[in-house]
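Lab meeting, item 3. Inverse folding demo.
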């Protein structure tokens, strides 16, 4: 059996057999907001999804695609996705066929969209981070970037083979305009200015 006690217009319910005063759950306004974790000295870079039709060269190279077989693509397009000579990349590109070509785990793959590290479609304002520094799914802000860039909120849903420690790689979308936008995010040395980064995990 329980009873209801009214104190200053607030109702508290407790069992008659309980000992001591009733416990009262804090309201939402009583719970302190979690302050973002901010620090200086971050390298900021960008990445994008190239589109094969934007590359005008005639050189082509044949590759083996998992589950598809052999197909030829513009050489510069392939190099933009993954540079074999330098051994880095693991990116995605949109082919002339309309589907996406990606390189990861040492192989070429076909997909209906460019994918992040969790095999989900990449969305603009996704960032690749080192998950030992920024947890996956965190909200990220780079407040001192110029203009409207400093107001943007990013989500840490991706990782990268070259993203370690205090380094954030911002995904900017597809095509030539996304490539231009990518360079607006490049702040990775002392001459251009390392950045302040704030993030909060959910």
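The presenter then showed the designed sequence:
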């Amino acid at each position: 059996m329980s009873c209801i006690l009214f104190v200053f217009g607030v109702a508290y319910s407790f069992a008659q057999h309980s000992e001591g005063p009733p416990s009262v759950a804090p309201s939402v306004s009583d719970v302190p907001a979690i302050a973002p974790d901010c620090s200086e000295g971050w390298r900021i870079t960008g990445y994008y999804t190239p589109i094969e039709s934007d590359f005008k060269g005639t050189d082509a190279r044949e590759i083996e695609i998992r589950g598809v077989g052999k197909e030829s693509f513009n050489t510069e397009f392939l190099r933009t996705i993954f540079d074999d000579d330098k051994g880095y990349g693991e990116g995605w590109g949109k082919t002339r066929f309309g589907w996406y070509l990606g390189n990861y785990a040492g192989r070429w793959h076909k997909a209906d969209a460019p994918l992040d590290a969790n095999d989900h479609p990449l969305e603009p304002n996704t960032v690749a981070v080192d998950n030992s520094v920024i947890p996956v799914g965190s909200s990220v802000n780079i407040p001192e970037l110029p203009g409207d860039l400093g107001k943007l909120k990013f989500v840490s849903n991706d990782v990268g083979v070259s993203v370690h420690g205090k380094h954030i790689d911002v995904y900017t979308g597809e095509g030539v305009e996304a490539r231009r936008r990518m360079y607006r995010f490049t702040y990775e040395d002392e001459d251009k200015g390392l950045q302040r980064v704030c993030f909060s995990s959910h």
